[in-house]
Amino acid sequence: MLKPLNNSTVSRPSNHKTKVLQFGEGNFLRGFVDWMIDKVNEQTDFNGSVKVIQPISRGMVDLLNKQDGLYHVQLQGVKDGEPYSNIELVKSVEGGLNPYEDYQEFLQLGENPDIEFIVSNTTEAGIAFDENDTDYNTIPDSFPAKLTALLHHRFKHFDGAPDKAPVIIPCELIDKNGDNLKKYVLQYADLWATDAEFKEWIEKHITFCNTLVDRIVPGFPRENLKEIHKEIGYDDQLVVNGEFFHLWVIEGPESIQDKLPFDKAGLNVKFVDDLSIYRTRKVRILNGLHTSMVPVGYLAGARTVKEAMDHEQVGPYLEKELFEEIIPSLDLDMSVEELESFAKDILERFENPYIRHQLSDIALNSVSKYKVRVLPSLLQYHSKKNELPKRLVFALAALIRFYKGSWEGEDTPINDADDVVDFIQKAWEKEDHNKVADTVLSKSEFWDQDLTQISGLKDLVADYLQLMDEKGVNSTLSEVVQ
Q: Of 244, 272, 300, which residue sits at a domain end?
């Protein structure tokens, strides 16, 4: 018989103060930030808890409160070359609040003198300005507007005390997330005609941190929930499954680390003056390899990241692309050894036997992803060496072939804007590999430039397209690309 999971069945510290407000109750924050806060509580005298704010009208706060904020995190992956799995009970979350049900109670959270940090993950679309949020006397819709209302209430309650200005650490996956969030908060302060002193308090005393987060959190492990329940002995409906690896890069003053001592808890958290090199490293190595993997792996018969890594031709192709083309193209203030160490960790993560990361899930907006994640490596490699990186070029050819819409009698899982898909599929009506390559590569709206102007690129892409159709992807990989 499983026990319910709540404060009556679990012993938890009674001396913790609410130091963190968190916009978002989803899997990522619970499997990343809240898990880290729990570690800091265990290893240091931080003694802080997290109060969760549901950012949209429908969410999981009711279920979170039913379990008094308690839940388990199952971490799985490869550690020191061996499969690794464990389950931990997280006690850092005290519960949550739905501001759509009680807006005044939400604003009153700003009156808590112990609040030091505000974190968020409201999806990439969450940090945006909605001009319809014109009145903060009723619940605003956008996250930045809610945050502005909360901060304004706190400012008024504490008469603008500098020491009551929180540190704000957004985790949304957009570039300059902290800078953008601050910009929108100030826009709402103007829209609502708040007092000038409030804007000054924001500018002078609130720290908005840009961040980079990295941990794969697939979420609720529905497939093996019975086994997990049997192991933990509790009826936990909020179990979070994630990988062992974690990285949090925070662009902000070191004084934040004094207040939130991640280092003393042995966590992979870096406080830096400029996180741009870490972002470039992640985008070009991890995300770039993912984006290359989707069309190449799928056309070769793989359906998951693990299957692609284990594939006889695709696995070695990806590894050579990474170490022989992507890393040599990078121009960062990091040693080759540091880049290669990061790359080896990435490959180990991709080999995770516990996580079934579907290639079809990564296929979203693959054309724009190639432009941002892969094309810079191709262009910089070509600029440095005056030759084309054949594996990065093959990934581009495979992408164009993938977008044709079918392969060996099956539809390919394209997930992109209709105009992008329509353009490439119309190009394929020419039934001429040279014309297809010329049409797609010259589409400046896709690549921010005409790629046919790069010497030899169009011809090599056309050759790869022809070889794939004549011999298949596996033979092309074996004979040409590797």
A: 272
